[in-house]
Amino acid sequence: MRVSMATGAGRAGQPNEDFVGAVPGAAVLLDGAGIPGTESICSHGVAWYTHRLGGALLGLLSRDDGRDLAAILATAIGETAADHRGTCDITNPSSPQATVAIVRAHRGRLDHLLLADSFLVLDQVRGGPQVITDEREVTARRTCSAPLDGVPGGTPEYDRIRDSCVEALRARRNQPGGYWIAKDDPHAAEEAVTGSRPLHDLGGVALLSNGASRIVSPYGLTDWPGVLGLLGAYGPAEIIRRVRQAEARTCGGPDARVPDDATVAHCTHLPRSAGAGGPPTGHPDRG
After folding, report:
1. Structure confidence by residue, pLDDT tens digits, 101-160
2. Could you give the CA distance from residue 275 to residue 264 in angstroms, rounded to a whole number?
3. Is a pLDDT exceeding 90 seen at residue 5?
4. What local confidence, expressed as pLDDT, does residue 278 receive?
5. Where are the alpha helices (H) located in the chain, listed in sequence order?
6. What b/e readout covers 247-268, taking b as 16+ CB neighbours within 10 angstroms?
7. What angle do CA 9, 37, 11 make, to 5 degrees?
8. Lower Cβ count inside 10 Å, N or C end of the chain?
9. End-to-end CA distance of the chain
10. What is the rounded distance in angstroms from the CA atom of residue 111 to the CA atom of residue 115?
């Protein structure tokens, strides 16, 4: 399996809290989350967490033992939590956390796992692309933010309601009926969105962080078939370049969004044999 990758921080001089990596037959993408300025909660920070968790996942996947992806993620979350449980308040709602996307070619099938709102795009041999994401966080955020509808921004009332909305969303994290994300509890892995497809049904697969998916929504620069076309013609860095252009164009306007870390992995030349397939080819491009 050939994997090409690109990743870039949302802002110059700020750490990139995404992670992307690959081992023969598998690729991993994480999108870190946390609250800036919370060093008293975790001295390491979000970037440390995503790289530690991503590295643990790659180490486990490199064994190519066919273990269930959710079990692999649970082990990695547990190992990473143990790495800083003694020094950090890892149960605090604001401690570092991350979305997780994993694909693995094994025994003639492509297994996948998604936890929280990254995107997986399956390039199907027949029919258009199949786009998979975990929508539970988006749904929870929409529900918790509903009280802000119609409240004028920049007012004390808006700030009061917004704070209560943030607390309501935190209360739904890693809870039944809420949403799930990699943090300190290995049991969150049991709630991941998982699936498997025969490799001969697929021409490739792409993984995108939330920041990179902006090329489709909200910016509408292309659709998901167009994303696959851009990846095939120009590679992952082109996706990020176009997102950055859109962010720059809307800067200061009513549709402006804070630039986000953006990461893409594109897997092609999927193995057709029963094994995982070939040595790794391709390295991250820091865009």
Report:
1. 999 999 999 999 999 999 999 999 999 999 999 999 888 988 999 999 999 988 999 999
2. 25
3. yes
4. 46
5. 46-61, 69-84, 136-145, 156-172, 224-234, 236-250
6. beeeeeeeeebebbbbbbbbbb
7. 20
8. C
9. 23
10. 14
Tokens 């720059």 belong to: 248
For residue 8, what are the β-bridge partners? Answer: 262
The whole-angstrom separation of Cα 268 and Cα 260 is 26
Residue whose token pair is 């994997």: 3
pLDDT number for residue 286: 34
φ, ψ dihedrals at 192, nearest 5°:
-65, 155
User: What confidence tens digit (pLDDT) does each residue in 182-207 have?
Assistant: 999 999 999 999 999 999 999 999 99
User: Cα separation of 250 and 72, whole Å?
Assistant: 40
d(CA 132, CA 192): 12
Question: Are the C-beta atoms of 202 and 241 separated by less than 8 Å?
Answer: no
- As a whole number, the mean pLDDT across the chain is 91
In 10 A of CB 129, how many CB atoms?
21
Strand order in the sheet with 26-33: 18-23, 26-33, 97-106, 109-115, 193-198
pTM of the model: 0.90
